[in-house]
Each structure stands twice: as structure tokens, then as C-alpha cells.
Design goal:
The chain is an alpha+beta fold and 596 residues long. It has 21 helices and 23 strands. Strand 21 and strand 22 form a beta hairpin. The longest helix has 40 residues.
């Protein structure tokens, strides 16, 4: 037994070097694999982590490009905002009362407000609290002069968007806001930083990539304690490019002014030769600088986003009943159909019955036997009832499509635009958008309403501008635009020849001239001297939602070789287009005439 045990012990001792060798080899293999993993396979990843610990990037914010009017006046730019801040958790409590009192007296700030913000910051463990959001120059100078005695306070600098004219052309220019956390996930790939600004509406939105510029910065090397060692290079930020608009600030200011006494409405001034917008205003409006505030009061926020008045809605691109300004469409449909000639005469009446309703003439008498030009001059309803009933809904719908209705106008800020609505027999057969197909047919009452721009017709002021421009320029459909274009773009996109007989265009043009000479628009000449000949059309439309009237007036001048077209619209303003809308357009014409 003793001999056997001794043999086993000797065998065990002989195996120990082998086990040690295997264990050492396995350990070496593990170390080698780890080294390969660190040095070869994951080299880039760990090098990046090392560089991030060693290298710091000091970002340099780009300056957003400016937005200018046609003459170079600045409508939007960027400026530095200086805010007075404290870091509540690092304040020396013994010095706080003295410093609080000093800053209160120096900058005329309520000491109780300072104390409240300080206490809130401590309670909520905030690293930084803003005491004054936007220091003026006088406050900034006073602080800098006493900075050494105010160690608890400091001035934070931030680049913000600035709109010198506040609410002027607000719906055209649009506004910016910081990007959200969810947007950052994909916008970071495009070079955006957290809390970077991005255009939300208008020109700021449409030309975001053009305006925003590019971030720059300096790469610096630091040691293990985070202290600066050396600069590794500087990449300057790239300023965004400026955008030049077709807007004429003089006309825009007048457009804003004439809307002030209206509940709501819109003004468009456009060059009918090419579609260049000279003014576009919508009421109610809003101060663009609201969006540059770090703190947005709840009341102001709700007035913008929750108000029944909808100040963010661009009325110039929203759809309404057009009333009598629509009559040029019915007239062209009658002429184009071949059922009426240029010299057709129709007997107007006090009212004409369609279906179960008698549709009245607006003077309740009629105007005798008249033709197309005089029907436009006096804005006869019963004349256009007869034309519309004879040609039918689809002929009117087809001509309206040729004039640009029932579709987007082509203006750059199309995110704000409504395509409107022009009825057709197919729409009626398919249920009118609310009923069962085959159960809501087209009825005689519909054609009477459609003929004079009521109920089954909804159009935008910009569509009206586009259609009337085609009459003013002799038969070319133009695309409205807000930013300056080169000659090649204008020649390729601006003018499209209408598939409508030029003779009929001239009939409409003659009628619109008579409107101003001796018809419903004659007041445009009152109190104005040296104004070139004007052509135009008044309109009064009942709002199918409220029952209140909309007031319209469209005009262009000079009548023969027109250079300016104006659409004036007053929403829910009873009294008629000649009473409310015409005077607005007149003020635009006066300023344009004086400047030219």
C-alpha cells in the first residue's frame, strides 16, 4: 500500500509542469486576444474615447442670414442678447444680501424678484438662473463698470433672431424655434446642435438650408485635469446667406396700416406681368420677436396658438367665398362655351327662380337689357345666373382650373396655403364630401350660387390675384413669388399662355375698366390725383359659416399696361366691397403712384 501511494505521488509531481504550461499558455492566449481586440479590432473606438478625454471642441455658432426687402431694408437679422444670470449653488451666502441689494439698485430690479429666483434655483437645484432676460445697453454698461463687485452675478451672451419691424410681413417672413430632442436625433446628422434654431414657417422655413449657415469651432487639447494645453485648429463658422425678397417695404407698411381697423383680412400687391409680390399682409398678425424669448408667458403663448382669432393663419392664402369678384370666371365660361357671344344682351330681372328659391338682383329691380361689360360694371347677379345656368357647373369648373383655382398658386410659402374649392357635378354625385354617393345630386340652386361665387366656391386671395393678373396682362397665367429670381427662371416658369380666346380676355378687361369709370368701383378715383387709369371689381360675399359679409376689391393699374395689381379682402366686415375693401386698395395705389 505504501509503495503504491508513493508511485502516485511521483506521477502527480511529474504532471505539475504540464498543467502549469497549459495554464500559462491559456492565460497568454487570453491576453493576446484582448490586445488584438483593443489594438486592432477596436482601435478607432478607443482612440475616439481617448481623444474625447483629451480634446475639447469649443463650438462657434453661425450667424443666420438676413431677410431683406427688394430695396435692401432688413426685415430679419440676428443680434446678441445679454442676460443677467446667477449660479445659485455656488453663491457665497455671506455676500449675497449685499450683492442682491447692489444689483437691485444698479439695474432697477425688484430685490424680491431676485430673491425669489435665487430661492427657486436652490430648491430645484438649478445650475443657472436668469434674473433679467434681455439687458439693454445702459444696463449692460452699468454692470460691466461694477462687475468686480458683483461676483455672484454674470452676463450670459446668446445669438438670437431679431425682427426690426416686429409684426410687419410676419406671415411671409415666418419664425424660428429651437429644435426639439426628437428632431435632434436626425438633424444632428445635418450639423445641427441641441437647441439650435430652425425655421418653422414662411421664408425662414422654406429657405432654412440657405439661411442657417454652418457651425464652426476650435479644437483644443487639455491635460488629465482638464486644463488647456494647446490649440489644434480653428474652423470658422460660416454665416448663412441673405435672402432678398420682392416685397417693397413702403407698400408692405401701408398694407399693414390699412388692415388695422379691420377685424380680419388680407392685402396682396403683385406685379401682374411676372407674379412678383410687392406686399402681402394678413390680419390679425403677431410679433415675430415673441419666438426669440427664452421665457414665453403663458398668456402670450395662448393668444398665438389657442386664440379663436387665429393670428398665425395667413388669410392671404386661406379660402373664402369670393362673391362678385368671381363673376369674371362665369363670364369667361359663358364666352368660351360658345353659347354666348361677346355682344350677347340679356334681360336682367328683380329675381330669377331656380328650384324652390327666387335668387334676387342686388338692387331688387334689375338693370334692363345689358351685355357682359355692363354686367360687370353694375355687378348684376341675374345676368350671371342666366349665363351660369346655361353653361353648367362643369364648364365653369373647367375655366376656373385654367385660371389657377382649385390648386396651389405656386408661391414659395405653400405650407400655409389652402387650395380652396370649386364644385363640379362629379363632386355632387360622389356625396359632396359628406353624403352617400348618388344621393346628393347637383341641383338648380347650386348653379345660381356658383355663378356669383357663393356656397360651392371657396377661393384664396392669392388665387384671385393670379386670375386677375391673367386679365391684366392680356392672357398669361403667372406664378406668384416672394424671392428675387433670375431672368432664366422667370422666362421658364413665370408666364403660361392661357388656353382662352384673347378676344374674351379683352371683353372682361373692358368690363373691369367700366367698373371704375362709372360702376361699383368709381370711388377709387375720389380724392386721388394723377393716378393712372385703374380697372377693378368689387365683391360682397356672404360667409356661409357666420352669415356675415366678406368685402372684396381687386384692381390693376395702368389699365392697359398694368404694373401693379391689388387684392383687398376684409373678412366678416358687413357693408360691401366698395365701402370697406376699395379704400384699402386705394391707399396702396396712392403710395405706389407717389413712389413711381
Amino acid at each position: 500500500m505504501i509503495k503504491t501511494s508513493s508511485n502516485k505521488k511521483r506521477i502527480s509531481l511529474k504532471r505539475q509542469p504540464l498543467v502549469l504550461l497549459i495554464f500559462s499558455s491559456f492565460s497568454f492566449l487570453l491576453i493576446l486576444m484582448r490586445l488584438i481586440f483593443l489594438q486592432l479590432l477596436n482601435y478607432e473606438s478607443f482612440k475616439k474615447m481617448s481623444d474625447e478625454n483629451r480634446i475639447r471642441l469649443i463650438s462657434s455658432q453661425p450667424i443666420r442670414g438676413r431677410i431683406l426687402d427688394k430695396n435692401g431694408y432688413v426685415l430679419a437679422d440676428s443680434r446678441f442678447k445679454y442676460s443677467l444670470v446667477i449660479k445659485p449653488q455656488s453663491i457665497n451666502v455671506r455676500d449675497w444680501e449685499i450683492q442682491k441689494s447692489t444689483i437691485s439698485n444698479l439695474l432697477n430690479v425688484d430685490s424680491n424678484l431676485i430673491q425669489k429666483k435665487y430661492f427657486d434655483g436652490l430648491t430645484n437645484q438649478k445650475l443657472s438662473v436668469t434674473i433679467l432676460d434681455d439687458l439693454n445697453i445702459d444696463q449692460l454698461i452699468k454692470f460691466k463698470e461694477n462687475e468686480n463687485n458683483l461676483l455672484s452675478f454674470e452676463v450670459a451672451t446668446k445669438l438670437i433672431r431679431n425682427y426690426p419691424y416686429k409684426s410687419v410681413a410676419a406671415h411671409v417672413i415666418g419664425y424660428t424655434q429651437p429644435i426639439t430632442d426628437s428632431e435632434y436625433k436626425y438633424l444632428s446628422k445635418k450639423g445641427y446642435k441641441l437647441n439650435d434654431l430652425i425655421g418653422r414657417t414662411g421664408i425662414e422655413y422654406v429657405y432654412e438650408d440657405f439661411i442657417r449657415g454652418e457651425w464652426g469651432g476650435e479644437m483644443v487639447e487639455v491635460n488629465s485635469l482638464g486644463k488647456y494645453q494647446r490649440s489644434l485648429g480653428i474652423k470658422p463658422s460660416r454665416q448663412g446667406k441673405d435672402i432678398a425678397l420682392t416685397i417693397d417695404l413702403d407698400l408692405q407698411l401701408v398694407a399693414e396700416e390699412v388692415l388695422k381697423d379691420k377685424k380680419a383680412g388680407a392685402i396682396i400687391a403683385m406685379d401682374p406681368r411676372n407674379g412678383a409680390i410687392r406686399a402681402l399682409a394678413s390680419k390679425p398678425t403677431f410679433d415675430l420677436n415673441f419666438f426669440s424669448k427664452d421665457f414665453k408667458p403663458e398668456k402670450e403663448f395662448n393668444e398665438l396658438f389657442s386664440s379663436v382669432e387665429k393670428p398665425l393663419l395667413n388669410r392671404a392664402l386661406n379660402a373664402y367665398d369670393p362673391g362678385s369678384v368671381w363673376k369674371i370666371v362665369t363670364a369667361l365660361a359663358g364666352l368660351e362655351s360658345g353659347r354666348f357671344s361677346s355682344d350677347t344682351m340679356l334681360e336682367t330681372q328683380p329675381c330669377i327662380t331656380y328650384g324652390n328659391q327666387c335668387f334676387r338682383e342686388h338692387n331688387d329691380l334689375g338693370f334692363g337689357k345689358i351685355g357682359f361689360e355692363d354686367a360687370l360694371r353694375v355687378s348684376s347677379n341675374t345676368f350671371f345666373y342666366q349665363v351660369g345656368y346655361e353653361v353648367g357647373v362643369d364648364e365653369i369648373h373647367e375655366v376656373s382650373r385654367k385660371l389657377g383655382f382649385n390648386s396651389l398658386s405656386g408661391i414659395e410659402i405653400s405650407e400655409q396655403e389652402n387650395i380652396g374649392f370649386v364644385a363640379s357635378s362629379q363632386w355632387a354625385r360622389e356625396g359632396r364630401g359628406w353624403g352617400e354617393a348618388g344621393r346628393t345630386p347637383w341641383v338648380p340652386e347650386d348653379i345660381a350660387s356658383m355663378s356669383i361665387g357663393q356656397m360651392v366656391v371657396q377661393v384664396t386671395p392669392i388665387q384671385i390675384a393670379k386670375a386677375y393678373a391673367a386679365i391684366a396682362n392680356g392672357g398669361y397665367l403667372v406664378t406668384p413669388y416672394l424671392t428675387k429670381k433670375d431672368e432664366k427662371f422667370l422666362s421658364d416658369h413665370s408666364r403660361i399662355k392661357l388656353d382662352i380666346d384673347p378676344e374674351y380676355i379683352q371683353v372682361i378687361k373692358n368690363g373691369l375698366r367700366k367698373v371704375v369709370e362709372s360702376g361699383t368701383g368709381v370711388a377709387i378715383n375720389t380724392g386721388v390725383t394723377n393716378l393712372p387709369p385703374v380697372s377693378g371689381k368689387t365683391g360682397t360675399a356672404e360667409d356661409w359659416k357666420t352669415g356675415l359679409d366678406h368685402a372684396w376689391f381687386v384692381c390693376f393699374t395702368p389699365s392697359d399696361k398694368s404694373e401693379l395689381l391689388v387684392v383687398a379682402f376684409a373678412q366678416n366686415t358687413p357693408g360691401g366691397g366698395s365701402v370697406h375693401a376699395l379704400p384699402m386698395a386705394k391707399e396702396i395705389l396712392k403710395v405706389w403712384n407717389e413712389n413711381n
